[in-house]
Amino acid sequence: xxxxxxxNNEIISRINETDTNLRNSIIKTNNSLNDLIDFxxxxxxxxxxxxxxxSKFDTKLGKLNHGLRDYIDRRIxxxxxxxxxxxxxxxx
Length: 92
Description:
It contains two helices and no strands. It has 92 residues and is mainly α. It folds into two domains: 1-44; 46-92. The longest helix is centred in the last third of the chain and has 39 residues, at 47-85.
């Protein structure tokens, strides 16, 4: 077997190369994390945002529910009138 001797300069060079690669990797990871944090800041909703949205949704849902009940009442009233008119139902 050959015994390869490594000089101090080669060791230092390898250490520096490894250090540079590690630093570059850390910088890339840090940049990726910063990008992720920026994205989350732009797209996340706060609890207050969610409360406001919930309140608006509840209001719209209430209006829709009320409108639907009014529509059903009108349809039932019309049907009842038709049934009275053809003699199926008697008025009191």
